[in-house]
Amino acid sequence: MSKRTRRTFSQEFKQQIVNLYLAGKPRVEIIREYELTASAFDKWVKQSKTSG
Fold first, then answer.
1. What is the pTM of this model?
2. How many other C-beta atoms can be found within 10 angstroms of the C-beta atom of residue 24?
């Protein structure tokens, strides 16, 4: 069993991902294409909505 290393993402990258979603790209496509976890993606969208 291999241990996964935790990836870190820049604020700019997170904003680009959120912008794709807000532009209409399906959530599941973004998650698959960028190999993200659903929980991380959802957190970024939520943070974007609360921070403006």
1. 0.84
2. 6
